[in-house]
Amino acid sequence: MGAMPQAHRDHALDRAKGLAIFAVVLFHVTRGFVTAGLLPQTPGLRFADTLAYGWHVQTFLVIAGYLAFPRAALGRFQLRRQASLYYTYLLWSLITWLLLVPFASKVNTPLTWQDLFWIPVVPIQHFWFLLVLMAGTALLGLLRSGPLLLASAVLLLAIGHPSVFDDLGPANYSLQIYFHGVPFVLIGGWLSQSGLRVVPAPWAALICAAALALAAWGANHKGAELGPMDVPFMLAGGYAVYVAAHYSARIPRLAAALDLLGRHSLAIYILHVIAGAGLRIILVKLAPGLNTGIAMLLSLGAAVIGPIVAELIARRLGLAVLLGLDPLPFWSEPRKVATA
């Protein structure tokens, strides 16, 4: 570990986001096919799913916290970030609801009119990520010292242990997403506040990847997913991903592809379910005998390429802000703030 100036841009972070968003899309697609009864849930697939869900979104949250600190202490940064994230959350939650309700009999997770009423505070599908980013960013603005950031992360994880919310019924999920997600934003903020640079060591990355795999195997063996007690293993997995992203620079085409995915990660995250699941439903209807592997590849391609094309078109037409793909044009953010 060594000091790293905040002004230095670490392009491995962009490629790590690319790896993470590809994993998110891949395993949302496979889960969709499994839930629809089109793909058998084999032990190998179950293990891979548990492993992926132990690092992909968590990696995003740590990177978001790292990049937001220390600007999160400034009021205009908070105003713009919170307003932009919530606008994007509400817009695409509503669009998703409007698309899914008429096809309630065709989708894996149908929505109701009651879901529309609760959208402002109870997320549907994968849009919980945006609410967690909002809460984490708000806390970064209040907790500006390393010890406070780490202590708060540990406290949230302890409070968010599944047993604490066993009797809360439907509120269980809505609360746990914050207690399980926000700590990763705070840990990212701590990394930034500490001024430490993560050294990409291949052997250390292999050990960390093996540790996460072992934890995922243990959770999978118990029929569960990785939880709050497994956070050290999740962070180890995030480190392994960062190292892989760093060394991907040695393969220019791979690095370019990961950079592309990283740059468009927000659009992909927002739109991949609509694009991927939408094509799956169309294929089931129009080509019921299509090979499952081919159908999955087509759905995966649509879930990755579709959002990128949509974002490029939106930018060409000047609609990126309106569609929540760019921050709202208010309270311009400062570009650089010195770390205390």
Outline the structure in words.
There is one protein chain. This protein is an all-alpha fold. It has 13 helices and 2 strands, in the order βααααααααβααααα. It has helices at 11-35, 43-52, 56-68, 75-100, 113-118, 128-142, 146-159, 171-194, 202-221, 231-247, 252-263, 265-286, 292-316, and strands spanning 2-3, 196-197. Strands 1-2 form a two-stranded antiparallel ribbon. Helix 1 (11-35) packs across helix 10 (231-247), helix 3 crosses helix 8 (171-194) and helix 7 (146-159) runs antiparallel to helix 8 (171-194). The model is unreliable at 1-7 (pLDDT under 50). It is a multi-pass membrane protein. Keywords: Acyltransferase, Cell membrane, Membrane, Transferase, Transmembrane, Transmembrane helix. One of its GO terms (biological process) is enterobacterial common antigen biosynthetic process.
Summarize the structure.
The protein is mostly helical and 340 residues long.
